[in-house]
Specification:
heterodimer, A: alpha/beta, Rossmann fold, 2 domains, 4-stranded parallel sheet, 13 helices, 8 strands, B: alpha/beta, 6-stranded parallel sheet, 4-stranded mixed sheet, 10 strands, 10% strand, globular
């Protein structure tokens, strides 16, 4: 099984620790994983701003970099959702379609494809789990409170395998953090208020860490936590599941 | 009413009063939770939503047939049916009906359609006195505002503000904000209105093609009070309100109020089928852009909407920006996909007033893919040229960098270097992110750089 590691642009540039943890975690699970070095971005920043027509080059690059893999795995639900819905090719749509079916978010790849049942990891902290909307409602990583349907949560399923980790309940289990891509600057006032409220829910429930399968939400909440001088940290779920924070 | 400010600017104004934002958010979230409790008591809730969605799909695919069937049945019942292509025609029909009878005063129960058509303004300009009899609508009418929510028109107002309005307009003692007292005052005031108005206008929640009857749902009974006491009852309905058969009500009435307020059903679900002896009943079937929307493949199913407001209550943006930030009669996520159909330039900002979190689509009782339509409207609005120039330029620049591997790596390295060596270049007031949020800490190496050294493949 050849797996291509798809690291979103902002993770590559600002959160290499989460990318390294993803890589090490997959390696530990026995996956033949490699990182195509010429990858850039899925194109979502343009597409969600109404400029999907400017994503042709991103699509071409993505297809070029990730052809030949059995699976494409990425530690960001939002970028995966974008590829799943919007990756197209002018010259080879069949290949684009096949690729749309091969791309997985890290958590769902672990629960659904690798069928991971145990992990060698411990994290003796109180953790708040942020359900990133695109992962939750877009990729169905967990059940949403809007539906009358049985509960499940793939991120929680994995976090439950981590020794000494305590998941704290939240007052609003699946409210959006307000990041929303360019929304965070275009609608600054509402975006900030949403972020502050989301962070407050975690703080009120006594968490030490906020984790999520999506770093964009964590980046947003981290910006707010830092500004208010909070000691609470954000951590990508891969870093918890990998067992240690790796900064080498 | 809102000047030329767009959603972001109006939301910023609303957010100047954080206590109000918190109160607004919590009030609407409370209703969302009530909705959750109510829908979780129905085992087959999701099946019910799917059924409603299918019924509405059928309606939209056969709209003209159902409308003609409805017209024939209603006419046979003795109801006079009118057709209005747009808001202006609708308003003129109402005015003409009133003028023919020499009526200068009308009572109106809740109708978002008449808000959409700006009926009150038109009638007032022509010397007709209109009183809204829904309590929330009466409050915003006294305040000379638009409703900020389709089910809870004055949800943006605190009781103290309502007390002040009543003091000014209805003569209640200054400083009295007791909800019970204020409601009783409104009741007495409206009772006089009901008894003296010869014309009553109501909205329509559902119109049944099979029987020619229509159903009006209220909690206050105000539609019934108005309609039963008046000589002439005018019901205004958007053409999408039609349902094929009476039995389909059993689906929609179960969904509507559970979704709206968490009640099992509205206090009054009144069926109107024919005029009382010696009285008149009119129905105005209004298009006002609906046929155009029906022709937009990606957006047609927005016409399935039954106006429950669940998408507003659940929307994390709406709860923190207030209904007036949408500067359209119908606010929130559903308003943001309906409004651009009427005026793409004026409402170009609305589809962007969302994080695309998808909560709206999943509370929607008729399964409108609201957040996907928001995404699609963004593409249409940009393609039609309604995006601001600065945004076009910056998007082209970003696409240029992200579409090339070497440019991306050079730019990424450059950005990190600048942020490390000259953080003031990004940590300043020109960066909207930085206003209330710190920038991420900058790592020594990107993942790509780390990988090259540590995996060397």
């Amino acid at each position: 099984m050849k797996v291509g590691l798809f690291i979103p642009c902002y993770v590559d540039q600002f959160y290499p620790g989460a990318a390294i943890a993803t890589l090490q975690l997959l390696e530990k699970l026995g996956v033949d994983v490699s990182y195509p070095p010429n990858q850039t971005c899925c194109g979502q920043p343009m597409a969600n701003s109404g400029f999907e027509h400017l994503t042709g080059d991103c699509n071409r690059l993505f297809i070029k970099n990730f052809s030949g893999f059995d699976y494409i795995v990425c530690p960001s639900g939002s970028c995966v959702l974008h590829i799943k819905h919007h990756l197209h090719s002018e010259t080879n749509e069949a290949e684009a379609a096949a690729m749309r079916g091969k791309v997985y978010e890290l958590v769902e790849f672990m629960t659904d494809i690798l069928k991971v049942e145990t992990l060698n990891a411990e994290f003796p902290h109180k953790v708040g789990l942020h359900q990133s909307c695109h992962g939750q409602r877009g990729l169905y990583l967990s059940q949403m409170t809007e539906l009358v349907a049985p509960a499940f949560s793939k991120p929680r399923q994995l976090l439950n395998m981590v020794k000494d980790l305590e998941i704290m309940p939240l007052d609003r289990p699946d409210e959006c953090c307000g990041f929303g891509g360019t929304f965070c600057v275009a609608e600054e006032a509402v975006s900030v208020k949403m972020g502050q409220d989301r962070v407050a829910d975690h703080l009120n429930n006594g968490v030490d860490y906020i984790t999520s399968p999506d770093l964009s939400c964590l980046m947003h909440m981290e910006g707010i936590l830092h500004r208010r001088g909070s000691k609470v940290k954000v951590i990508h779920i891969a870093e918890i599941l990998n067992g240690k924070r790796n900064q080498d | 009413m809102t000047g030329n400010k767009d959603h972001a600017a109006l939301a910023e104004v609303f957010n100047k009063d954080e206590d109000r934002v918190d109160w607004h958010d919590e009030t609407l979230w409370f209703i969302r939770k009530k909705r959750d409790l109510a829908v979780n008591k129905i085992d087959n809730w999701e099946e019910l939503r799917e059924t409603a969605s299918q019924i509405k799909n059928n309606v939209l695919s056969n709209l003209s047939n159902y409308l003609q069937e409805f017209e024939a049945k209603a006419s046979a019942n003795g109801v006079i049916v009118h057709w209005a292509a747009d808001a202006a025609e609708h308003n003129q029909i109402v005015l003409d009906l009133l003028k023919q009878q020499g009526i200068t005063q009308m009572v109106k129960s809740k109708s978002m359609l008449t808000e959409e058509c700006h009926l009150n303004e038109h009638l007032e300009a022509n010397g007709i006195d209109v009183i809204d009899s829904d309590l929330g609508e009466r409050i915003v009418q006294l305040a000379k505002e638009m409703p900020s929510h389709i089910v809870l028109p004055c949800i943006h107002k605190k009781k103290e503000e309502i007390g002040e309005l009543f003091h000014e307009h209805l003569g209640t003692p200054a400083g009295n904000a007791d909800p019970q007292f204020l409601t009783e005052t409104a009741r007495q005031h409206l009772r006089d209105v009901f008894l003296t108005r010869r014309a009553a206008l109501t909205g329509v929640n559902f119109a049944i093609a099979e029987t020619g009857e229509f159903v009006v749902c209220t909690n206050e009974g105000n539609a019934d009070m108005g309609a039963h006491l008046a000589d002439i009852h005018i019901a205004s309905m958007g053409i999408e309100k039609i349902i094929p058969e009476r039995k389909h009500l059993s689906v929609f009435l179960r969904l509507l109020t559970r979704s709206a307020t968490g009640q099992p059903i509205t206090t009054y679900s009144s069926h109107f089928s024919k005029p009382r002896k010696g009285k008149e009943m009119h129905i105005i079937l209004v298009d006002n852009g609906r046929s155009i929307q029906l022709g937009r493949e990606d957006f047609r199913n927005s016409l399935k909407c039954i106006r429950c407001g669940a998408c507003m209550n659940t929307c994390p943006v709406y709860r923190r920006s207030g209904g007036h930030s949408y500067h359209y009669a119908i606010s929130g996520p559903i308003g943001a996909i309906l409004a651009p159909n009427l005026d793409m330039e004026k409402y170009a900002d609305l589809p962007f007033a969302s994080t695309l979190c998808g909560s709206c689509s999943n509370v929607c009782p008729v399964k409108i893919d609201i957040h996907d339509q928001l995404y699609k409207w963004r593409q249409v609005i940009v393609q039609k040229g309604y995006a601001p120039t600065a945004k076009k330029v910056s998007m082209q620049a970003i696409a240029n960098v992200l579409g090339s591997s070497w440019k991306y790596h050079v730019a990424g390295k450059a950005a990190r270097t600048v942020m490390q060596l000259a953080p003031f270049a990004v940590n300043n007031k020109f960066n909207p992110w930085y206003k209330h949020r710190d920038m991420p800490e900058v790592p020594e190496k990107s993942f790509g750089e780390w990988y090259k050294i540590n995996r060397n493949k």
